[in-house]
Amino acid sequence: MINSEYLDVFLDESQEHLQAINDNLLKLEQAPDDLSIVGEVFRSAHTLKGMAATMGFEDLAHLTHNMENVLDMIRNNKLHATSEVLDVVFAAVDDLEAMVTDIAASGSGKRDVSEVVGQLERIEKGEAVAKADDAKVKADSLSSFDETLLYEHYDEFERTVLHQSFEQGYQAYKVKVTLDERAMLKAARVFMVFEVLEQVGEVIKSNPPTEHLEEERFDQEFLVTVVSKTDGDEIKQRILKVSEITSVIIQQIDEEMLKNVETPPTKPIESKNATNAKKSAQMEEQVPTQKKSGELNKTIRVNIERLDVLMNLFEELVIDRGRLEQIASELRNTELNETVERMSRISGDLQEIILNMRMMPVDQVFNRFPRMVRSLSKDLNKKVNLEIVGAETELDRTIIDEIGDPLVHLLRNSIDHGIETPERRQEIGKTEEGTVILKAYHSGNNVYIEIEDDGAGIDRDKVLNKALSNGVITEDDAEKLTDEQVFGLLFASGFSTAEKITDVSGRGVGLDVVRNTFESLGGVVTVNSVLGKGSVFSIQLPLTLSIIDVMLIEVREEKYAIPLTSIVETAIVNKKDIYSAHNQKVIDFRGKVVPLVFLRDIFNVPGEREEEEFYSLVIIHKGDKVAGLVVDSLIGQHDIVLKSLGNYLTNVFAISGATILGNGQVALIVDTNALIK
């Protein structure tokens, strides 16, 4: 049955039921006497048990059965849903999720769950319950390191490199690194480990391969083979300085080991979550039908890879449509013009349908946060209420895939840094329970996600002093910065105001990665805070990354595209209305001083500069900051397909991508955020 056509359906429905169980358990904790919630949890568990048994996953069915027995006792008023009991049920759900993830990764779904099963059975017998955290500690202490993980198969080339290294006096080590299970940005941690290793030697091999590590397609462990003249203990200590690493085990390799140990190739330690995402990344397209009474909506499951192919084909169609429109305008043939206009309307409708097919509600990301907040508030001994608003707001799937980990980090920061302890909140006249609001909403062609807390807020002076002591800014800069600019310093690399390092925060890593992640998606992060009242982190994201509306402009012979979402308006100004202030050309635009940016200077466009009486301007904005881009001429508004410049041109200033115009010419897309910054 494992290889049957029903496996994908089983995985999708199992994840839906597990999510429903998680959500309802959180509700039950708030209303332990509401038996209707227990009934919902019981029904989801019962369905999951039946599906697992039918598919032949007996271990999964057995654990669900034990959990079901406890839920049945609560449902029949034989047991009260205390926090301790629910901790054990939550632990069981964690194991169920791990087993389903293993099945999705082509595993057997088997897992040692004896500890949590024992706790569930003790609850059934009416015995006292140990805390879930204690059970986890015990389970961790019983686990032993699997020595076989350190053995690695090397191909002929890798063996040759190792032999040559030995001849030149290098030592070779196999390094096993284990990340903290709560690590949010695993790829960043891996990068930092590799950076350490490359400082002391040369990496020969990694398991999983580097591309899997970069894409976070692994669990918490990875193996690296490195050659170095540095002592193994020193390498270990250097790696341990990287945050969110729980253990480093080093084994030295010698010539004898290479000769004697011939092990079969080890299977890459691939992330179960990533493999699961590959298998279950399917979307349901609603098919409009005339419904008869009692008839259900008809849906079809489409693999996401097919939608990506469809999107790529449509992008090519958009490019050809632009070419046809240009040819039609040049030939001035009435019939051709009518045909092209009709094709443009149809392709516009098709574009809307395809983009809507790729849209997913942010609930896909938000639904894991209530459980995380519950665990975190217990760890920090704080009372936190998470309110989610606008979970039905939709975003392009490619953006949805990227925003989860950065949002986790911002939420953890709000709870750890923002929300005070219950005792402190009472002292200053607040309720014991802090509130964190996670909100999503549409505005124009953007989606806004806000994380708001009613905690302590951000101490402006403390941030400034820390920035000065770290050399992030100078004394002169400090006097000129607005509140928003000061709070923006929190996103500087390595910046932290935490007075002590915890598992949650204070290591000076994370917020810079958060900002970089959102900006790589074309987004903007801003912070507003009132000391003693709370903070709001606001993220602006584009609806989609594939096809965008732009204003085409010309500078000399070169064409550039400016995203419409960044444009306030266009204008033409007289040369005499341009002034100088602090060595910067500015204009008075609607009562506001707006600095001017001459694109021909920024992009070093060749050609002699001519003095003109009138200048064409594109007024752009980022938040409440405004600037005027001086261009030679405005061509007009177009739909364009956004194309990446590739790895080689990643760091080109103020350029975020390129597009192919109707005449085959390439136009670069201006990164307005970089210009304003």
In short:
By secondary structure, the protein is α+β, with helices and mostly antiparallel strands.
Structure description:
It is a single chain. With 677 residues, the chain is of the alpha+beta class. The chain has 5 domains: 136 residues, HPT domain (Four Helix Bundle (Hemerythrin (Met), subunit A), Up-down Bundle); 129 residues, Alpha-Beta Plaits; 62 residues; 181 residues, Heat Shock Protein 90 (2-Layer Sandwich); 130 residues, CheA-289, Domain 4 (OB fold (Dihydrolipoamide Acetyltransferase, E2P)), CATH 2.40.50.180. Helices cover 44% and strands 24% of the residues. The protein has 24 helices and 24 strands. The strands form 6 sheets. The chain has a 6-stranded mixed sheet with strand order 16-20-21-19-18-17. Strands 8-10-11-13-12 form a 5-stranded mixed sheet. Strands 22-14-15-24-23 form a 5-stranded mixed sheet. The longest helix is centred in the middle third of the chain and has 28 residues. The protein is globular and about 90 Å long. About 10% of the residues have low confidence.
Strand order of the largest sheet: 16-20-21-19-18-17
Number of strands: 24
Mean pLDDT across every amino acid position: 79
Tally of individual domains:
5
**Percent helix:** 40-55%
Radius of gyration: 29 Å
